[in-house]
């Protein structure tokens, strides 16, 4: 993975001192909260329901054991001994003190981490495929490109006061494991005549008005990659709406002027930007890409795994995915224990995962947008030992992509934007469906819960989605069906009137029962829904 | 009744106006009546509170109960982590919120 | 870097519409929604372009500034309005060389802000050499 050179380190160190100074000025009253707010947001520091919440960046979801151990240390020293992994591959701490934040950031900087631009109206963390460098289906590892974008977007002087936040995802496989089409810019690396380039999708997003990003350019060669990105952003910065924060994302601009007109404006701007010489030479991508060369895999390792332990076998079948290298596998660590808080990990659990990565995965981990963790390069002969360690740490729930593998935003228990609590709903649903065989019988069922219309739980992209609303001061939950964030991207459709916190669990159950009744061989929940439509489900849910 | 609430600037802790200062316990909060705005501006200007605002609450024998669930969550802590709330030993605390 | 507090003895900056109608103004003021490119045919007539920042959150002026520098404008490029010290460094990188903030800026804070970062990641309108160029010569 990428390692800072002295330039990268100097930039992060300077940022820490800048923020320290800004905090000092705020505490001394030299700047008001209104002036300070965008500054602290650009360092990922929110004022949330209980305290300041800090969102630490995990660039494209990749980190090593040293960094993971620091995240555990931060949790112990500055927070309440746990962290929350997010739907953008970052980590959040909920109880940070403003007066300690600069020290915290200084500690992060010692292991090449930061909280730069994890909030604010600027370009956010570049997300990517959690199986990058391990999956057989990618045309290349997308992460060098993500790193190129990270550097280009960091403290970009023109794009730090955008109309709204800006989220970019980069993938390199046809299977979309990063919800690429639901980003402001989604980039899909493709080959053309043996040369790597990027397809640009612009104008996707969830939130209040979910939209799927249309294809804006099917092939941008690597040498134009940053100029083209710059052109896309400049058109947005100039023409994105500034009159209404609920209509300020680029998806609204693309929708209102149309993809063709947006493309035309970008092409015009690109023709100009290309002359400015802002694209690094090929040598820079090569320099970065060298950090992402495959680890020193052993060759000739066996693909056989001893399945005699039945609990291990279940986990093996559900959570372990094929690796491009013979004798290796991709391990998915579930942060969704039944009845637990989706995406949360205690400092002790974070340390366990760090140790496992160091020992068994060439010192690398990934955070997924489904709020789980991946050990990307585990030798099959080590899988049993890994599973035993995970099991002892309550990290071995064999529920990847099953109904209890819920994506849930923090909701009203933590977030000042929320209208309803989302975590208790996740807990109730997971508990209702706790039976492992029942879950496996239901099969792939991506259930996502948002506690408000901002959709941080990605409910629009759920096979089953739940949206918490405030109905006359009482929490109420709407059900959507048929969304997907994968390459079969679709926006979920609301079933009808909402439910209270117990009713929604029953409604979900009735939907799954109807699926079982109607399904044809090989059909997932979402496939059956797409085949038969909303009506049979609506009847089952509302009776 | 009306309560004045906000966050402590340096620590971020949720705080409640007691009539003479700020407490992290909503039980200590007083009814600011019609003078809430004046107190709010004075306290915010002096940086004794950050992001203050006024909420409705109902007086109860146990103390003021904020009218909106969001402020009750702020008053107590996350319902899903009783151990991290202001009343970790009280099994009924979550019911008070909900 | 020049910091202006008043436009004393200076020709007033006219609006974009007025400028495009007029033949002899040498100073023009761009609002956030004005198209900076409308000035490109007239840059050699201009000594001052003032770009308005009615609210610091509205970042359109950064693009306007860069566009003008990219087009070859060499005159004074001024950021006027809700200009806070924490935006000065970005503004300078986008080509601004003078500032007319509504609330006076503390000079020490401005100097600290401008000397904070030795390195930048990306090319912009200033002379700062992006890190990738330092890496590869």
Describe this structure in words.
The complex is a heterotrimer of chains A (543), B (98) and C (137). Chain A contains 17 helices and 20 strands. Chain A has helices at 6-27, 33-41, 65-78, 98-109, 143-153, 225-239, 250-257, 259-273, 282-290, 310-319, 347-360, 383-392, 423-432, 436-442, 503-518, 525-532, 534-542; strands at 45-47, 52-56, 62-63, 82-85, 91-96, 127-128, 168-171, 185-192, 195-202, 215-221, 320-322, 328-333, 344-346, 365-367, 373-379, 407-408, 447-450, 464-471, 474-481, 493-494. In chain A, α3 runs antiparallel to α4 (98-109), α6 crosses α8 and α15 packs across α16. Chain B has one domain (2-96). Chain B has three helices and five strands; from the N terminus they run βββαββαα. Chain B has a five-stranded antiparallel β-sheet, with helices on both faces. Chain C is α/β, with parallel strands linked by helices. Chain C is 29% helix and 18% strand. Chain C has helices at residues 16-21, 60-70, 85-93, 107-114, 131-136; strands spanning 2-3, 14-15, 27-30, 48-53, 76-81, 98-101. Chain C has a six-stranded parallel β-sheet with strand order 1-6-5-4-3-2. The longest helix of chain C has 11 residues, at 60-70. The interface between A and B is medium-sized, with 27 and 22 residues.
């Amino acid at each position: 993975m990428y390692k800072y050179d002295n330039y990268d380190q100097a930039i992060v160190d300077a940022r820490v001192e800048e923020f320290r100074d800004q905090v000092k000025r705020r505490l001394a009253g030299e700047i008001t909260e209104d002036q300070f707010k965008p500054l602290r947001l650009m360092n990922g520091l929110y004022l949330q329901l209980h305290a300041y919440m800090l969102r630490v960046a995990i660039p494209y979801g990749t980190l090593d054991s040293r960094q993971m151990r620091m995240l555990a240390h931060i949790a112990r020293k500055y927070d309440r001994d746990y962290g929350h992994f997010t739907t953008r591959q970052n980590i959040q701490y909920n109880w940070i003190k403003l007066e300690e934040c600069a020290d915290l950031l200084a500690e992060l900087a010692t292991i090449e981490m930061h909280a730069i631009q994890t909030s604010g109206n600027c370009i956010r963390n570049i997300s990517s495929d959690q199986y990058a460098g391990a999956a057989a289906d990618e045309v290349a590892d997308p992460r060098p490109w993500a790193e190129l974008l990270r550097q280009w977007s960091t403290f970009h002087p023109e794009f730090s006061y955008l109309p709204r936040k800006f989220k970019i995802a980069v993938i390199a496989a046809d299977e979309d494991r990063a919800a690429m089409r639901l980003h402001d810019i989604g980039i899909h690396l493709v080959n053309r005549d043996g040369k790597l380039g990027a397809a640009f999708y612009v104008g996707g997003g969830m939130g209040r008005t979910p939209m799927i990003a249309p294809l804006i350019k099917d092939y941008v060669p690597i040498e134009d990659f940053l100029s083209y990105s710059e052109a896309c952003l400049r058109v947005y910065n100039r023409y994105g709406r500034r009159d209404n924060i609920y209509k300020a994302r680029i998806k609204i601009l693309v929708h209102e002027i149309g993809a063709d007109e947006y493309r035309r404006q970008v092409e015009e701007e690109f023709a100009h930007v290309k002359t400015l010489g802002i694209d690094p030479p090929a040598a820079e991508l090569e320099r970065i890409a060298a950090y992402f060369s495959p680890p020193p895999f052993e060759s000739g390792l066996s693909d056989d795994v001893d399945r005699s332990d039945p609990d291990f076998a279940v986990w093996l079948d559900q959570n372990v995915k094929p690796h491009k290298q013979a004798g290796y596998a991709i391990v998915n660590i579930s942060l969704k224990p039944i009845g637990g808080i989706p995406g949360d990990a205690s400092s002790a659990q974070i340390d366990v995962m760090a140790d496992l990565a160091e020992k068994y995965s060439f010192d690398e981990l990934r955070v997924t947008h489904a709020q789980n963790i991946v050990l990307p390069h585990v030798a099959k002969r080590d899988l049993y030992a890994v599973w035993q360690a995970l099991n002892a740490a309550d990290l071995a729930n064999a529920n990847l992509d099953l109904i209890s593998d819920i994506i849930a935003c923090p909701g009203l228990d933590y977030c000042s934007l929320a209208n309803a609590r989302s975590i208790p709903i996740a807990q109730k649903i997971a508990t209702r469906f706790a039976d492992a065989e029942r879950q496996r019988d239901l099969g792939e069922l991506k259930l996502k819960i948002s506690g408000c219309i901002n959709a941080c739980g990605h409910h629009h992209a759920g096979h089953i989605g739940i949206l918490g609303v405030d109905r006359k001061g009482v929490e109420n939950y709407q059900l959507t069906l048929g969304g997907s964030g994968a390459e079969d991207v679709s926006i979920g459709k609301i079933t009808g009137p909402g439910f209270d916190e117990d009713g929604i669990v029953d409604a979900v159950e009735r939907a799954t029962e109807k699926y079982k009744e109607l399904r044809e061989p090989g059909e997932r929940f979402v496939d059956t829904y797409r085949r038969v439509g909303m009506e049979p489900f609506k009847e089952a849910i509302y009776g | 009744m009306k309560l004045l609430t906000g966050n402590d600037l340096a620590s971020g802790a949720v705080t409640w106006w007691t009539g003479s200062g700020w407490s992290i316990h909503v039980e200590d909060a007083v009814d600011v009546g019609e003078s809430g705005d004046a107190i709010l501006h004075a306290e915010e200007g002096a940086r004794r509170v950050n992001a203050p605002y006024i909420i409705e609450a109902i007086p109860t024998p146990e103390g003021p109960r904020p009218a909106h669930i969001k402020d009750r969550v702020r008053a107590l802590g996350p319902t899903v982590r009783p151990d991290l709330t202001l009343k970790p030993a009280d099994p009924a605390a979550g019911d008070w919120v909900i | 870097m020049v910091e202006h507090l008043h436009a004393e003895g200076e020709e007033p900056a006219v609006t974009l519409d007025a400028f495009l109608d007029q033949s002899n103004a040498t100073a023009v003021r761009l609002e956030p929604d004005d198209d900076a490119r409308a000035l490109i045919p007239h840059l050699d007539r201009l000594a001052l372009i003032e770009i308005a920042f009615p609210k610091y959150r509205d970042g359109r002026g950064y693009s306007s500034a860069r566009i003008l520098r990219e087009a070859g404008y060499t005159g004074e490029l001024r950021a006027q309005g809700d200009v806070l010290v924490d935006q000065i460094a970005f503004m300078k990188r986008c080509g601004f060389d003078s500032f007319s903030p509504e609330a006076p800026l503390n000079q020490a804070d401005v100097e600290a802000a401008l000397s904070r970062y030795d390195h930048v990641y990306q090319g912009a309108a200033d002379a700062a050499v992006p890190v990738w160029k330092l890496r590869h010569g």
